[in-house]
Amino acid sequence: MAMDIIIASFDSISEVNMDYTITMYLHQYWTDERLSWSSSVPIDEMTLSGEFSQNIWVPDTFLANDKQSYLHEVTERNKMLRISGDGKIAYGMRLTSTLSCSMNLRNFPLDAQNCTVEIESYGYTTSEVLMKWNHPKAVHGVEQAYVPQFTITGYQTEDRVVSTATGSYQRLSLVFQLQRSVGYFIFQTYLPCVLIVMLSWVSFWINHEATSARVALGITTVLTMTTISTGVRQSLPRISYVKSIDVYLVMCFVFVFAALLEYAAVNYSYWGRRARGGGEEGYVSSFIIGTSPDTFYSDPTFLLFRTRRRLRMTKMRAASMTTSLHRMGKRARKALPSIRVRDVNVIDKYSRIVFPICFVIFNIFYWGYYSLIQL
């Protein structure tokens, strides 16, 4: 018994359910000499409705990896039976079937999958029915088929004998070689992740004293990365191994979280230094906050500080004119903030270079590694 298939369409492929849906025309050919007629009859062949198949022998073909199938019935039941004068029979039907497809998603979404159509006789063993592909062209319509998010790179037909508890059966396999199209995921996942990571670097250019702005930006980028990761996980089955897209999402999350921690280091460096090195003014300021007026003005430390301050003011008035002091004060006020920013923001200065370089290096290794795997 020979067999061929015409692919009408690929309807869907589901990673969550590990299956795909296909609509096809299944044709089977065999010879039954009991249905032949004399050459004197001026008819070469007869085409009958599919219902006539209940009156003759037909193979008990089924799809071994089928989950759910149905025959189309618009406008009539889509089955055909054609009998030739020499007893040759062509039996065809149009059906839509959801077939299981075991997928290895380790390289998702830079992966390739093989999905099969497994055809087998349900009850007849190899000693009773021999099945084969109707070569040289057993499969049609693959070149015209369109698969969402995939490209059909090729197909091949196989036949083998499978052994079960009830006997050995002939099985015909049609293997579709599918390459996933990464363009959808570039715009839906990868590009947003890159932009979020780059957005987290903006905090390196924000003044370290703008605490609310930098913390809000850091938390926003972290939460956005979490939302993207959650959306990707919901579209995939719950599998234990690490996928390619998991690696990228985790690394992007690390970069975003590291940018938030970088500000914590900058903030601690600035305020920690001020707390440790306040000098006499720092001591007096803290003393003022926690001391009553009577105790404060009689404290020896305050009296010593006031005496030293008066001496400095006397020397300054004697050494320079009022206009000179004014100019020096303006220069000091301009120089002090620049010195402080330059001293504290050294971490920001290096982060502006280190973070982008590390992210570019990661992308080079990531895309290079998974591109080599596809070869």
TrEMBL record:
Segments forming domain Neurotransmitter-gated ion-channel ligand-binding: 3-181
InterPro entries: GABAA/Glycine_rcpt, GABAAb_rcpt, Neur_chan_lig-bd, Neur_chan_lig-bd_sf, Neur_channel, Neuro-gated_channel_TM_sf, Neuro_actylchol_rec, Neurotrans-gated_channel_TM
UniProt entry keywords in alphabetical sequence: Cell membrane, Chloride, Chloride channel, Disulfide bond, Glycoprotein, Ion channel, Ion transport, Ligand-gated ion channel, Membrane, Postsynaptic cell membrane, Receptor, Signal, Synapse, Transmembrane, Transmembrane helix, Transport
A Pfam family annotated for this UniProt entry: Neur_chan_LBD
GO terms, molecular function: chloride channel activity; extracellular ligand-gated monoatomic ion channel activity; GABA-A receptor activity
Domain annotation Neurotransmitter-gated ion-channel transmembrane: ranges: 189-273, 339-367
Membrane-related topology note: Multi-pass membrane protein
Subcellular location: Postsynaptic cell membrane
Residue ranges crossing the lipid bilayer per the database entry: 182-206, 212-233, 245-266, 350-369
GO cellular component terms, A-Z: chloride channel complex; postsynaptic membrane
Highest taxon listed in the record's lineage: Eukaryota
PANTHER family: NEUROTRANSMITTER GATED ION CHANNEL (PTHR18945)
Family named by the database record: Belongs to the ligand-gated ion channel (TC 1.A.9) family. Gamma-aminobutyric acid receptor (TC 1.A.9.5) subfamily.
Name of protein: Gamma-aminobutyric acid receptor subunit beta
Organism this protein belongs to: Heligmosomoides polygyrus
Organism taxonomic ancestry: Eukaryota, Metazoa, Ecdysozoa, Nematoda, Chromadorea
